[in-house]
Amino acid sequence: MSMLRRRKGPEPPPPEKTHENEIEDDNDNKKKNKSPSTEESTKKRGGRFSCVDNCCWFIGCVCSIWWLLLFSYNAMPASFPQYVTEAITGPLPDPPGLKLHKEGLIAKHPVVFVPGIVTGGLELWEGKSCADGLFRKRLWGGTFGEVYKRPLCWVEHMSLNNETGLDPDGIRVRPVTGLVAADYFAPGYFVWAVLIANLARIGYEEKTMYMAAYDWRISFQNTEVRDQTLSRIKSNIEVMVATNGGKKVVVIPHSMGVLYFLHFMKWVEAPAPMGGGGGSDWCAKHIKAVMNIGGPFLGVPKAVSGLFSSEAKDVAVARAIAPGVLDKDLFRLQTLQHVMRMTRTWDSTMSMIPKGGDTIWGGLDWSPEEGNVCNLKKRKSNSSQVVDQNGTVAEGCTTKKAHYGRMVSFGKDVADAPPSAIERIDFRDAFKGHNLANSTCDDVWTEYHDMGFAGIKAVADYKVYTAGSIIDLLHFVAPKMMKRGDAHFSHGIAENLDDPLYDHYKYWSNPLETKLPNAPDMEIFSMYGVGIPTERSYVYKLTPTSECYIPFQIDTSAESGKEEEGSCLKGGVYTADGDETVPVLSAGYMCAKGWRGKTRFNPSGIKTYNREYDHAPPSNLLEGRGTQSGAHVDIMGNFALIEDVIRVAAGATGEELGGDQVHSDIFKWSEKIKLKL
Fold it and tell me: What parts of the sequence cross the membrane (predicted)?
């Protein structure tokens, strides 16, 4: 059998390569050429996202959620947030203006607002080259954008001349005018806005409301010298009275505005050129009532710590946590030094140094607030009191004695020691020495740079300072600042108010060195929050030496021990009752005793009332800053306070409001102050 062999046909041509085939071939080649290590790393990744991928996804999710919420907020009905709040907290009470409108109250007396320190807006009218593009832009208030964009330029423009207390060469910063000057301090953070809105509900409008804006940095008399602000307030009040049928104004000062308007009442009646020349009956003709809110009549201890070390309670805690940021030259951001350099040029801050010395604030071995209970809940549950116009108070609970009269103590042991155990070396005539760092600290110069180690040691060796020696302390550490301050403010107690010495304007903002106007039909209210721990005295220590430093700081390690319950010491700060800024003693004493009835400070017997508002924080975040707050600024949204203001503006008297409304021990403490009345 023959073997047949089939001839091979021609091989078919290779298929044409498409783009897809080329990609597959490339991938096959890559797989063949891939090293084992590459394969292992691929297996290890297992398709996971990298860190960058995760970050991108996270940012994308956050942005998406943000835009979704923003869209939902703008798309929802205006009443929806209120509906949610009421569903959680229950029905909300009517705003005071709406409530009183339903009762039939209508606008009657024109209203004048006098803002306090830092709450009024300031804008630039002339500046250095670093402030180009900021003409009439707010440097204070609003968004504070320039603080972040050009901080040193901002500090330079917010500072005043260290010799005159007025404008530096080439810089003009002026107060914003109108109701917008202080309705909001920053976007969403109201000051006067809630009160203005509620007054509008009973018929008030801009022609019957006036914001007496002023440059709160400069001394009170200098607001007239530079801006004629006092004359403008006088003219506006006269116009408001004349155009509203002769109805007198209701004046509502807040915080330092209380002292500013006290100065105004003396200025307006004093003869020219020092005064406004309105005559001794100007206030009687034009003012129905002065409703002071959170007034620091007798000063605030917080002013001492601010001028001494640029600190308050919260700043001291931050300084202890992050000293490299606030104290040292970190990226040239010597924060506290710049703050001190700037604020020590603001003469107005010296108006709030405690007044009356040891007679008012206490000494080494006593204070009016002896027995104060720091735990406010415990105080309310364990003590009860009844207060009448004569200051009769039932005894409440007592606790371990706190030496509030020792306003500054160097060391907790000194703050607690009996007076006889404290060895002190007088600092007043001590040699200050010379600080070699002064030549390298021009950009953050403070007066501490003129003090050597001998002067710093002398301050610490005196151990403890009461309100009477605080003035001498500030003269020693800041002589330039206090030289300007002495020309515009006084902090003592007048022996004889008829002495022509007290006709000078430097005494007009101190209620212990001036008389109220002769206006027996006028009423004065002191309205303030209580129930919040408020700075009263401090424990200090020396700061470790470094270049361009502030040598003193609050000792945040000083705390009350378990065996010292009730001593109110926390983070180096002793606290007493108040509104978080102004202690009850300062806000309430003058209306409770100093001006109560006919006294040498109130010769015409103007009626005075203490209206206290017990602090109740918001129960949840939806309530914002709350409607029952007693905090120094948040009280401006307190419904009870707003209702009192509206009723008086609509014609009510203090007696019709119910007279005094007191929750604190102010009458009891006032009786401990032995002041000739």
Answer: 51-73
